[in-house]
Write a structure and sequence with these properties.
By secondary structure, the chain is α+β, with helices and mostly antiparallel strands. It is built from five helices and 20 strands. It folds into three domains: 127 residues, no CATH class; 83 residues, Elongation Factor Tu (Ef-tu), domain 3; 123 residues, Helix Hairpins. It is 30% helix and 36% strand. Strands 3, 5, 8, 10, 11, 12, 13, 14, 17 and 18 form a ten-stranded antiparallel β-sheet that branches. Helix 2 runs antiparallel to helix 3. It starts with a helix and ends with a helix.
């Protein structure tokens, strides 16, 4: 094909247009990148003093997670010991009672009559015994005088001994009837609070029917099941920090006793933690927390402050770069986890390496922040006093981190 000047001119025009378009797009892209970089450089976040904390050495209790049910040390289900109609029940749920106080009465008429009958039978047996004794005394005197035979004396002695046995049996029967009469009155075995009223006035109850439940809230403990392997490290007297039904305040407890054997089926070992201050707590609440095994002085931060969205765990620090405060990511090595031994802070803590005391660390509630982002504090809350060049990294270190 013959190349004409016209075709060469058209190709040159098309090439020039393509180069112009490419240059225009490149310039526009560069302008957009420059604008984005400028916006990123000017981006900043506003924080308050509650969003940061100062890293320091803390006493951490390395613990074992436990959970269980709060139970009263003294707990009783009061049941009917005899059958009958409830003629009186004097308490309801929440009433405080004292040891020996009458709580309920079962209709005693039947048991009163049986007791009276047994008493009369005992009286009749006593009379028969006295008659047999007089007969034996008389026959003994007659034998000594030779008026009757020795056989007649032996017969009278046997009759007397039988009458004595009948009298004792009648007395025992009267005692049994007396006990049944006494059992018609239900009394509190110890001082406490009524938890359940299971029967109502006028209701007929059978033997061993539950009538009331009584608890003593002055002494409470937590029954916590542990795996056999975990139970080997638990000792009497160890301290636990427990949270009751998600309440913010922690309750201190101590291991008071342990089951000597594992439970059938679950193979768990029951550990009993006595609460130091049971006031205000209730029987049957759920408790969870940590049982302290080892205490150690370590550099520690809240577990939520350590981020794991990078290949290595890190924390977000605040550092001074000239007159500005910026975010810096500091890689750390995580150690043991536990709780604050003072019990003032219920959150989980973790020991870290690679962090110096006095560093200002962002709390986990702040979320992930880009390294190098500007930070300023609210006008109401000024920046923490510890936020200075003495406690934070130098600008040179910040520059190296940015690179």
């Amino acid at each position: 094909m013959k190349i004409t000047p016209r075709r060469i001119l058209i190709a040159i025009v098309v090439l020039a247009l393509a180069v112009g378009i490419w240059r225009a797009l490149s310039v526009k892209r560069a302008q957009q990148l420059a604008a984005t970089d400028a916006a990123l450089l000017q981006a900043q976040i506003e924080l308050s003093n509650n969003d940061v904390f100062t890293a320091e050495i803390r006493e951490i209790t390395q613990g074992l997670a436990v959970s269980g049910t709060v139970k009263a040390l003294n707990y009783a289900i009061i049941k009917a010991r005899v059958a009958g109609e409830l003629k009186e029940i004097t308490v309801r749920e929440g009433d405080s009672v004292t040891a020996g106080q009458v709580l309920a009465r079962i209709d005693p008429v039947e048991y009163q009559r049986r007791f009276e009958q047994a008493q009369e039978q005992a009286s009749a047996a006593k009379s028969q015994m006295e008659i047999a004794q007089r007969q034996w005394d008389t026959n003994k005197a007659l034998v000594d005088q030779g008026f009757i035979s020795k056989t007649a004396l032996d017969n009278s002695l046997a009759s007397f001994q039988g009458a004595v046995a009948s009298h004792k049996a009648a007395i025992a029967g009267a005692d049994v009837a007396r006990k049944s009469l006494d059992d018609s009155v239900l009394r509190a075995p110890f001082s406490g609070v009524i938890a359940v009223r299971a029967a109502q006035l006028g209701e007929r109850v059978g033997v061993d029917a539950k009538v009331l439940e009584l608890v003593d809230l002055r002494q409470l403990e937590v029954e916590a099941p542990l795996s056999p392997s975990d139970s080997l490290d638990v000792k009497i007297g160890q301290t636990a920090q427990l949270q009751i039904e998600d309440r913010p305040d922690l309750v201190t407890a101590h291991v008071s006793r342990m089951s000597p054997s594992a439970q059938a089926g679950s193979r768990s070992v029951l550990v009993y933690l006595t609460l130091d201050k049971p006031a205000g707590l209730r029987h049957g609440l759920f408790a969870k927390g940590n049982l302290g095994l080892v205490n150690a002085q370590l550099m520690a931060v809240p577990l939520t402050a350590v981020r794991t969205d990078h290949p290595s765990p890190y924390v977000q620090l605040l550092e001074k770069v000239g007159e500005e405060t910026r975010v810096r990511h500091q890689t750390v090595e995580m150690g043991i986890r536990g709780n604050d031994a003072s019990g003032k802070d219920p959150q989980d803590w973790v020991a870290v390496k690679g962090l110096t005391a006095g560093s200002m660390v962002l709390k986990g509630q702040v979320g992930a922040m880009r390294e190098g982002m500007l930070v300023r504090f609210t006008a109401v809350n000024t920046a923490p006093a510890a936020l200075n060049s003495a406690t934070l990294a130098t600008p040179a270190s910040a520059a190296s981190a940015a690179r």
